[in-house]
Design goal:
With 296 residues, the protein is mainly beta. The chain has two helices and 16 strands. The chain is globular, with a radius of gyration of 19 Å.
């Protein structure tokens, strides 16, 4: 059981008053490997964090992310999105994700583990839609989530909405709900994301066009102190991008800090990404590896 306590103390400060919040605690582990605020996530499995994804030039895309946390936590998972452009409705697709902690052993008064393990996992599958008009992009995801913690299970439907708006050519504002199942601002099973992205420089660089962005994000609406994220991004054409974020994780007690950095490379119609999170409270690093294939 000690890994569950590490999870609560370090990665997901919200307690687990219900199985729904137990599932969301695992998804916050996945979010801790994002090298940018969740509201600003685009491309790849970005639709999992913000349903409002900018319209690309590709006809369809398929993306896969694999997530691995440190042994002290022992959580791992996978995210999958498949999206296609359907005129005149915009982009439609499906999202799927699963996160779990393995090898949780039962203990009693004896120092030896009791027979059997404790299952702790959550998975979600949903339908996603987004459309763009002018500088505004809106989106929605209807999903079904199933969570199991030991002998207790939870099943619920969630409906998330998101939007992003280009205030100017240099400033973008984004917001999204995450796993909302009812109207509340203090439910640990839900999150509300917000983000700002400001382009601070753009110009020719090494035979291509370089761009530098500054970013700020917040995660709130979950019943404990808000999380604040501050970061930056660099793009070199469509071939290379790197992102960096410093996050102050809120909690019911003392706050904690984490740092995440990531890179993405484009090779033909494939994009490969890698991110590393330094972890909280001296817990080891977490990793994310992603692959996206697009159909022009």
């Amino acid at each position: 059981m000690h890994r569950i306590f590490v999870l609560l103390a370090g990665f997901a400060p919200a307690a687990l008053p219900a199985q729904g919040s137990a599932g969301t605690a695992l998804w916050r582990l996945a979010a801790a490997t994002l090298p940018l605020p969740p509201a600003l996530a685009t491309g790849g499995t970005g639709a999992f964090w913000n349903p409002a994804q900018p319209a690309g030039t590709e006809r369809a895309s398929l993306a896969l992310d694999a997530i691995e946390t440190p042994p002290e936590v022992g959580a791992a998972g996978v995210l999958v999105t498949a999206r296609a452009r359907v005129k005149p409705f915009g982009q439609v697709g499906v999202v799927y994700g699963r996160m779990g902690i393995g090898d949780l052993v039962r203990t009693s008064l004896s120092p030896e583990p009791d027979p059997g393990t404790i299952p702790y996992h959550t998975q979600t599958v949903g339908a996603n839609w987004s459309a763009a008009a002018g500088g505004m992009t809106i989106g929605a995801t209807l999903a079904y989530q199933d969570t199991r913690l030991d002998l207790a299970t939870s099943e619920r439907w969630t409906f998330d909405v998101g939007g992003r708006y280009g205030v100017s050519g240099a400033l973008t504002v984004a917001a999204a709900t995450h796993f909302f199942s009812h109207l509340a601002t203090d439910d640990p099973a839900q999150d509300l994301y917000g983000g700002l992205e400001l382009r601070v420089w753009r110009g020719p660089l090494w035979g291509s066009r370089g761009t530098v962005q500054g970013r700020y994000g917040v995660a709130t609406g979950h019943g404990f102190t808000a999380d604040h994220l501050l970061g930056a991004g660099f793009e070199l054409g469509r071939q290379f991008s790197s992102d960096f974020v410093v996050a102050r994780e809120g909690s019911h007690g003392a706050a904690a800090w984490r740092v995440v950095a990531g890179v993405r490379l484009a090779v033909g119609r494939y994009r490969v990404s890698f991110a590393r999170g330094a972890g909280l409270n001296d817990v080891g690093a977490a990793y994310r590896v992603g692959l996206e294939a697009t159909l022009p």
